[in-house]
Amino acid sequence: MSDSSKQATSQSYSVAITGSGGSGAVTTGRILLEAAAQCGFQGLMTRSAGPQIRGGESAAMVRFSQDPVECMGDEYDLLVGLDWRNIERFADELPLSDKSLILSDPAAGEVPALLRSNGADILEVPFKKFASGLPGGRLNMVALGATALVCGLDLKALETSVKAILGNKGEGIVETALLAVRLGYNHDHRPRITLEAPGKSADHWSITGNQACGVGALRGGTRFVAAYPITPASEILEWLAPRLEKLGGSLLQAEDELASINMIIGASFGGVPSLTATSGPGLSLMVEGLGLALVSETPVTVVNVMRGGPSTGIPTKSEQSDLNIAIYGLHGDAPHLVLAPLSIRDCVFTTQWAVQLAEHLQTVALVLSDQSLGQSQAIIKAPPQRELSLARKVEATPDAEYQRYAITPDNVSAMSLPGTAGGMYTADGLEHNPRGTPSSMAVDHRTQLNKRLHKLEDFDFGEDWADVEGDGRQCIITWGSSTGAVKEVAGWLLAQGSSIKIISIRLLAPLQHDRLKDLLKDMEKVLVVEQNHAGQLFHYLHAEGVLPVSAESLAQPGPLPLRPGRILRALGGGG
Amino acid sequence: MSDSSKQATSQSYSVAITGSGGSGAVTTGRILLEAAAQCGFQGLMTRSAGPQIRGGESAAMVRFSQDPVECMGDEYDLLVGLDWRNIERFADELPLSDKSLILSDPAAGEVPALLRSNGADILEVPFKKFASGLPGGRLNMVALGATALVCGLDLKALETSVKAILGNKGEGIVETALLAVRLGYNHDHRPRITLEAPGKSADHWSITGNQACGVGALRGGTRFVAAYPITPASEILEWLAPRLEKLGGSLLQAEDELASINMIIGASFGGVPSLTATSGPGLSLMVEGLGLALVSETPVTVVNVMRGGPSTGIPTKSEQSDLNIAIYGLHGDAPHLVLAPLSIRDCVFTTQWAVQLAEHLQTVALVLSDQSLGQSQAIIKAPPQRELSLARKVEATPDAEYQRYAITPDNVSAMSLPGTAGGMYTADGLEHNPRGTPSSMAVDHRTQLNKRLHKLEDFDFGEDWADVEGDGRQCIITWGSSTGAVKEVAGWLLAQGSSIKIISIRLLAPLQHDRLKDLLKDMEKVLVVEQNHAGQLFHYLHAEGVLPVSAESLAQPGPLPLRPGRILRALGGGG
Amino acid sequence: MTVPALKAKDYKSGIKAVWCPGCGHFAVLSALTKAMAHLGLVKEEVAVVSGIGCSSRLPAYIDTYGFHGIHGRALAAASGLKAARPDLTVIAAGGDGDGFSIGGNHFLHACRRNMNMAYIVMDNEVYGMTKGQASPTTLPDWSNSKMTPHGTGIPSFNPAAIALAAGAGFIARGFSGEPSELTRLLVEAIEHPGFAFVQVLSGCVTYRPDQKLWKEEVHPSESDLPTDDPVKAAQIIQAGDGKATGVIYAKQFPVWQPENRTDSKLNTIEKEFLL
Amino acid sequence: MTVPALKAKDYKSGIKAVWCPGCGHFAVLSALTKAMAHLGLVKEEVAVVSGIGCSSRLPAYIDTYGFHGIHGRALAAASGLKAARPDLTVIAAGGDGDGFSIGGNHFLHACRRNMNMAYIVMDNEVYGMTKGQASPTTLPDWSNSKMTPHGTGIPSFNPAAIALAAGAGFIARGFSGEPSELTRLLVEAIEHPGFAFVQVLSGCVTYRPDQKLWKEEVHPSESDLPTDDPVKAAQIIQAGDGKATGVIYAKQFPVWQPENRTDSKLNTIEKEFLL
Ligand SMILES: Cc1ncc(C[n+]2csc(CCOP(=O)(O)OP(=O)(O)O)c2C)c(N)n1
Ligand SMILES: Cc1ncc(C[n+]2csc(CCOP(=O)(O)OP(=O)(O)O)c2C)c(N)n1
Ligand code: SF4
Ligand code: SF4
Ligand SMILES: [Mg+2]
Ligand SMILES: [Mg+2]
Predict the structure, then answer these.
(1) Does domain A464-570 correspond to CATH entry 3.40.50.10540?
(2) Count H helices, E strands: chain B?
(3) What is the pTM of this model?
(4) Which pLDDT score is estimated for A91?
(5) Which chain B residue has its CA at the smallest distance from C132's CA?
(6) Which fold has domain B206-381?
(7) Residue C3 falls within a domain, yes or no?
(8) B277: part of which helix (H) or strand (E)?
(9) What CATH superfamily classification does A11-185 receive?
(10) Residue pLDDT, tens place only, A59-116
(11) CB contact under 8 A, C18 and B55
(12) Are the C-beta atoms of A559 and A308 separated by less than 8 Å?
């Protein structure tokens, strides 16, 4: 599936930029990332913000490399302090070492002790002084120039990126920014690193995971979306709304999530592939509707962008703690599809696959993305188009014997769409007989329970159910956004000559028991890695009987990202 | 806990009464049950109805014994057909054998073949003819008399019961009924069975499971209920409404379940122990609210009376398929309490315990009853009052250092109630620091996640977590309403000189790992028995790592009850 | 191609209704199929969408497409269907509990959104299917439900007033005891371009036997109706006894329907991510 | 015992607000604490209950009891609290999204139920906290949200009209730019026996900078207010521009509060099960 396993054996460079409200740390990071992209690097930018609604202190974390970047590293090579106000809010998110460098402005005062404590080098650059020499000059642009130099990025690439990102602010602003950037860039001619720039690539994308889910939705054929805004999922909807209508589709902003889920069920009953996106609290409100979609066999896809839970929790930070509700959160016996993208790039394929699987199997598909995927900006190779031969089975010429919920060899029954003569039926959330007439008889219940189970259990999902890499007698099982850090660990081990098997599960339900068991057959050590408190995947795999008793769990809740070093320690020391 | 293990070694008698719309099968059954109770028997009446909203064909199933009756048997000793219209609707619910007797009216036509096929004896009584001899006479009352005779019940007891149950219909109706009953009773002087009547007992109750949950709620101290009607939970609310107000409490009928769950959270924040009752679709709508209660540490109890699922499913029939949503249905890492009553009688204790545990541990308690418990009428020994030393920890004199979510040795923090000077705080569903101020810092999240987990994990729940009976190297684990049938099997085995251990889990979450593992240590065979399709308990026990690999699952979805014979076969033949 | 005209009975599915004998909902079923026949609707181009309740069982008894959803969400499902399939005639239907209690929010927003559909609420002032609890339209002193043993004590919900305040453009009241008028109202509702709300007084013989009196109490509206003046409509609704039938208010507002502008290819859209 | 009178600032908790500098919600916080001081409320006998949104952060900034619940459910939690604790002064608060979009159903039913509480909606015609999407009160042509790039195209929700139709007995409109009038309105709302609804125009500087114009547009109502005639109130609300401040409607209806009749023992109740 991906060529990312090389990443960690290759070099990468990590930069964190922090500043208080209004200092522009995020813009600085974004320009830096795209400048690196102009040089041909791939990369990732995540961000962290304080509790303010807007404009509070924030940090932008950028990492770039010749190869795919799918997580932040253990430490930052470079920390750029636009100022030091409220830095304690971020300190634990910004690990440094004695190999790190801190770029700081003497005018901002001394570098705080908690940053210096690990022995990082300090390089002082008078951001403020330089900026104040320019009318309207902003110190973050000076810092950007100095940072780009340290990163060894080409000045022209940096200038292109400044123009691209600040372009809509007007010419004057761009001009001043360029001057400031040059001041920073030219003050000191000693680039600290010399990652070889691969040269700009024509097929690189700059995209967030939320946008990538949007692309996947469209590729999968989604043409109707109803949704209610929620952090951190709204950008999926905001990206889709203007684009859907260009493709003959539409997005409806609903009054709440109860409406949005039932709206997409209605639309899908009408034959249009439909999707919604939400996060934990919204998903909670949708579970009744999901049951209806499942029993009426109306395909729908829900992208759930996970955030810290439970309840309102930590809306702006990432966590993988909605696996339980995704798999088990419906009342009754309710098997359905649960998938998780393994990287920002994979958001495209996984969402496309989910939509088409839902259509093909006439059921509910849940896609578990999370804040760290959804709201991070990545420079990736453009994901190739994949044609999947998965589509809704439609009955175009129903006869008098037509049965909406007929038992068929694959347990999927052809759907007659409104408008089709002779195929009239009533879809129902009540248990029913094959015709769709409500029934409370044991035989009908059992028949339809079996149908809904076996259409999933017996379907051949092929090889995409997981990314499996490496070999050896040790194995890490992971899912979703934790995959990036796990793959980095695999790369390290490989570089050291030891090898490990990595199973990153994309299709969480129905679990591919036989394939998993097969892969785990001769393992001496199995570690299950995920970003939550309870070890939800770990317990789920046990529930499904695929894990050896000796398997271990590394479960770390959000909001801090799971770092490769932490995983390596768990591998070594028994969790 | 219970003296029911004797039940199956003792004799019992089972009667099914069926009839089409308006024939009065249920009233007949109810009078029969209470007549048996007047004679000192304990007993159970379940019922089954057709799809009509009201007055469709129905069947009443009555079983009585000298000992507690907690399930229907494998076969009926006696089938009484008031008529044979629509009997095919019920045929699979009414197993007969060659030891069974059918009471039928020749005027109703021949006994249908599918009832006769097992070789049951037929006794004809001219119900209709006898009834037509009386002005206003009803044939079901004639049948009742004939049935009571066959059952060996005393005529006086029967008359008392007729008066008690028909009393509110007016004197004329009662008089005619008594005449009809006597005609039926006296037509043939050959009682078929001679169960020795224990003699009326002063401490027997006639109660449904829904009422018993209501009693438990009140015993636990519940004084506020907000709820939205739903089958099969409404009777809990209908029983509570007029009684709560006599105890200084109240019930509010809410506009929907979103309102009801948030209303009881508000009331509980105010210091009043609060509860709601619902069924699957309503529970689905409540999960977001449950997360809020959990994170804000506001105690609430939800009684979920399970019915056939998923979605609207089979509203009037029983199933144990909401275990998944009950345990895992909240987003985020959300540990809470899940309990299930093991019998109608146990609804009283389990609900009381749930309410008081929720209060004591400041969390969410879910009680999983089901339709077969909730809507069945039982004659039971009055459940003794139990004083539990479990109550909400309240801070009566908060000082300036008061922290609502302080970390304490038992991880329960004293709650300051509105009205208490100096204890003002804001409860929050956002992650927070010990004071309650919203926080997105990793340290606060981890601290509060640990607090919410460990207050449950570290609490000593004592012996009530399960009913454990019997011994040997074979074991059945079960929960909720399946317990009755499992215990009956244990009784049979004991009578045959072989023995089996039965673990009926009352406290499903937090699961009592150590206790369970200890009990399962030397088992050669473990069978997990439950009434659903997926084997939800079975998988949950695996998830929690307490089951041996060799454990087997007997999972049978509703709506048919799980019969003891089916369990026995699973034990013998490997499931 | 000329198709032979369909009769009302041709729109019935033949599935036996679960309703109690005498239930008002039978008359609504009849009137609706008559309205369909009158309008000559092509069966497969109609979808009837409902929630949960006795009344919400309606779709299965009609031989068009039907969607029997979950409690309170009929209008949401109907809105999604109409948004995605503007070619269909969409009719939402349900009870007073379904529409005004648990479904109240969707009612508000469907009135505002003004999509082209009819919404029929069979109002029996009770939750029939759950055996007789008070609904929002139940009078405050009705004390026959054990859940509210002294009555709700809460003034009843005025559906027409809410619909008007929320911006509905067609508001009518019918009675299951006046089937031909009801048929006429339903015809007008289906023909109205936009959201058309019809409250049908449809008695529950089982839990509200007192509603037999409706035969005497219900009467045609005496005002000169319909009006297209919202203030006048508000006056009429406020002053009325809730038992006057007819189209109360009819006014055309812009109908909301998402615009599909098919002028791009996905390939082109994806180009935006190139650096 | 005489307690020294508290000042407005004594009702502030001291927790730093997360709001953007210039956000209208600051003025609401001030006005509410002033109203509390004016009424001499005992801090611990007050509970402020909210949902989710920028506006819903209010409780934490007030030094009374507070409950910051989930999105849209403020009125439900407040109603439960008031039902169980009639002795408390209960104030529910939140935003236009919280109250009129996801919370619309509870708004309808809280108006009807008429429990004794005040409900303050800080209306900025936008979802602030989720970064600027259209809310029910947003005008149909506001197209600054990418989720509705051509505007919603749906007539905006009229909170006062809905409240009136739903049966609220006190309806007022205030403006964060007129803090002393706002304080007065809040005092009256808290004093009103029954459900008192105050819509506060409280601008969002970040996503609705155009609301700076409110300073010019908002004006005291010209009608002779308040009225206790619902028809007149309906007229005024329909005819108005939505920017007139003042108490529009005030009428006393019976307040709903569950009755607790403490006259029995559980033991006695349980006797009913004896045969
Ligand atoms: C979420 C949910 N809550 C509650 C119910 C139970 N329920 C089924 S129908 C109904 C009320 C029906 O009343 P109404 O809509 O007035 O229809 P009627 O039966 O009176 O025609 C209720 C509360 C449910 N099915 N789902
Ligand atoms: C169930 C649920 N859905 C969506 C959200 C996301 N959300 C948080 S606040 C908000 C809207 C806030 O708007 P409003 O109530 O007007 O308050 P404002 O921020 O404008 O003051 C939304 C949609 C949520 N927290 N929970
Ligand atoms: S219960 Fe009432 S509403 Fe339901 S079918 Fe019977 S009469 Fe009709
Ligand atoms: S986003 Fe708007 S509503 Fe929210 S705090 Fe900022 S100005 Fe206020
Ligand atoms: Mg009704
Ligand atoms: Mg707002």
Answers:
(1) no
(2) 18, 21
(3) 0.97
(4) 83
(5) B229
(6) Rossmann fold (3.40.50)
(7) no
(8) strand B274-278
(9) Pyruvate-ferredoxin oxidoreductase, PFOR, domain III (3.40.920.10)
(10) 999 999 999 999 999 999 999 999 998 888 888 889 999 999 999 999 999 999 989 9
(11) no
(12) yes
